[in-house]
């Protein structure tokens, strides 16, 4: 009863996708989450359109649509209080239709995913906190921890998948986390009511000391996320988080126009130290998926897609491991290589964009360049939305067109290069 083929730690998008994938392949799977669902998360809450087919395959797309979420046409970006540039996702070359991105509260989305896991027959242990691993010959062979009554538990398995997010137990146990030196970021989020957004876009406003993402999540709820350098908040004795959140939001005139008719309807939540990368796992029997594998600043908002997709890639590697009865560190490292191969270009693009937005002249000239070339702007939205490969943007041709566009309509370019 306490022995499974695979134990998944974490019931977020990555853990649920992993459990459903392995269950569908016929494996006996258990999933432990320390939380009681529904539980909330600091998140922009819009899901790349590229995730739709995965959600469909997992059998949850219909139930998500039944929640009456918002479908967004793309992004509307304002650079340092300029008018928002609305960029739609590009139409599909197969159907001619334009895709859209789901925007849905995590409180609902994650509970719905976990419910699907339970219905599929996976053994779900809610309020089970994994505190350590069990080992057999140096390889991970199960987990142990504490349930909601503070009673200890232990579960055995042939393989453990850690989908525990940014604070995953593996990161601490094996000292895998590598955080960038220097200024760390902090994100705040809260839902608002009564906000009148001009159209169905995710509104991204870039200005000092950071940026915001504002999008409707349906049912007259708007999610307002603010990301800034941690230092902007001050140290101990600095401004209180809620006062800071409101002051910075309203400082930007474009944001003020959007938010002034609305009001915040829940406490402001925050998460610190956003970006990190992960060292290779030092033993067999263990795979990391989702945020546990590393995280980049959320400006391009693709974490849920990456979590779902990384679980699909891991599913193939785990299946091969069962067929050859081999879960050694070397055989499982194929997963890391595949993941890098698929996401490498996208990560590079996200890092470049995140670097550029903090430079006002560069940010302005990119926006002006994109405003002169709709196809170029839509290609960028397509890559960010995970419906076009990153190589469409990470290319000399794209850069050339960006520079040409910038010269067409941009006096700021000279300033940026000076
Ligand atoms: C400010 C911000 C904005 C973002 N905006 C977007 C966006 O708009 N779109 C997007 O796609 N992504 C966005 N993301 C990223 C997205 O939130 C994450 O990529 C996504 O939640 C990762 O899913 P996950 O399943 O890996 O982890 P999580 O969703 O964090 O789930 C991990 C689960 O593991 C459980 N757990 C952890 N440790 C243990 C343990 N020891 N024992 C038992 N259970 C455990 C936790 O309780 C939790 O339920 C944003 C992130 C931030 C910080």
The number of helical runs is 13
Straight-line distance between termini: 68 Å
Could you describe the largest sheet, including whether it forms a barrel? 8 strands, mixed
Number of strands: 20
Shape: globular
The CATH superfamily of the largest domain is FAD/NAD(P)-binding domain
What's the number of domains? 3
- How much helix is in the residues? 25-40%
Computed over alpha carbons, the radius of gyration is 22 Å
Class of secondary structure makeup: alpha+beta
What are the distinct ligands in this entry?
flavin-adenine dinucleotide
Q: Which CATH architecture of the largest domain?
A: 3-Layer(bba) Sandwich
Question: Which range does the strand content fall in?
Answer: 25-35%
Low-confidence stretches: none
- CATH topological fold name of the largest domain: FAD/NAD(P)-binding domain
CATH class of the largest domain: Alpha Beta
Mean pLDDT reading: 93
Descriptive tags:
418 residues; alpha+beta; FAD/NAD(P)-binding domain; D-Amino Acid Oxidase, Chain A, domain 2; 3 domains; eight-stranded mixed β-sheet; seven-stranded mixed β-sheet; 20 strands; 37% helix; globular; binds flavin-adenine dinucleotide
Note down, in words, how this protein is organized.
With 418 residues, the protein is an alpha+beta fold. The protein has three domains: 193 residues, 3-Layer(bba) Sandwich (FAD/NAD(P)-binding domain); 87 residues, 2-Layer Sandwich (D-Amino Acid Oxidase, Chain A, domain 2); 71 residues, no CATH class. The chain has 13 helices and 20 strands. Strands 5, 6, 13, 14, 15, 16, 17 and 18 form an eight-stranded mixed sheet that branches. Strands 1, 2, 8, 9, 10, 11 and 20 form a seven-stranded mixed sheet that branches. Strands 3-7-4 form a three-stranded antiparallel sheet. Strand 15 and strand 16 form a beta hairpin. Helix 1 packs parallel to helix 8 and helix 8 runs antiparallel to helix 9. The N and C termini lie far apart (68 Å). 46% of the residues are buried. The mean pLDDT is 93. The site of flavin-adenine dinucleotide has 41 residues, from helix 1, strand 2, strand 3, strand 9 and strand 16. The site of flavin-adenine dinucleotide (FAD) has 41 residues, from helix 1, strand 2, strand 3, strand 9 and strand 16.
């Amino acid at each position: 009863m306490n022995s499974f083929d695979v134990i998944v730690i974490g019931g977020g998008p990555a853990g649920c996708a992993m459990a459903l994938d392995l269950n569908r392949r016929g494996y006996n799977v258990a999933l432990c989450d320390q939380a009681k669902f529904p539980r909330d998360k600091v998140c922009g809450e819009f899901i790349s359109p590229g995730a739709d087919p995965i959600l469909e395959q997992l059998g949850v797309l219909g139930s998500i649509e039944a929640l009456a979420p918002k479908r967004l046409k793309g992004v509307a970006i304002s650079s340092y209080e300029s008018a928002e540039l609305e960029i739609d996702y590009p139409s599909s070359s197969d159907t001619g239709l334009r895709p859209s991105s789901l925007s849905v509260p995590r409180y609902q989305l994650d509970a719905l995913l976990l419910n699907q896991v339970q219905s599929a027959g996976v053994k779900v242990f809610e309020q089970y906190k994994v505190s350590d691993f069990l080992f057999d010959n140096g390889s991970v062979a199960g987990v142990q921890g504490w349930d909601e009554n503070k009673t200890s538990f232990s579960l055995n398995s042939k393989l453990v998948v850690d989908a525990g997010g940014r604070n995953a137990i593996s990161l601490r146990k094996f000292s895998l986390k590598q955080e960038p030196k220097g200024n760390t970021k902090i994100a705040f989020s809260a839902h608002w009511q009564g906000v009148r957004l001009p159209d169905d876009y995710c509104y991204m406003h870039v200005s000092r000391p950071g940026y915001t993402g504002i999008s409707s999540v349906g049912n007259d709820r708007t999610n307002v996320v603010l990301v800034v350098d941690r230092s902007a908040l001050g140290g101990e004795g600095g401004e209180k988080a809620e006062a800071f959140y409101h002051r910075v939001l309203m400082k930007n005139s474009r944001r003020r126009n959007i938010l002034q008719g609305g009001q915040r309807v829940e406490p402001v939540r925050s998460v610190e130290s956003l970006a990190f990368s992960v060292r290779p796992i030092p033993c067999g029997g263990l795979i990391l998926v989702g945020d546990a594998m590393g995280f980049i600043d959320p400006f391009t908002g693709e974490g849920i897609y990456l979590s779902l997709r990384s679980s699909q890639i891991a599913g193939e590697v785990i299946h091969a491991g069962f067929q050859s009865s081999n879960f050694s560190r070397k055989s499982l490292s194929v997963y890391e290589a595949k993941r890098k191969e698929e996401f490498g270009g996208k990560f590079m693009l996200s890092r470049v964009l995140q670097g550029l937005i903090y430079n006002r002249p560069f940010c302005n000239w990119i926006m002006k360049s994109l405003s002169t070339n709709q196809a170029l702007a839509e290609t960028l939205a397509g890559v960010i939305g995970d419906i076009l490969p990153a190589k469409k943007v990470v290319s000399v041709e794209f850069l050339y067109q960006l520079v040409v566009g910038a010269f067409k309509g941009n006096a700021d370019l000279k300033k940026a290069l000076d």
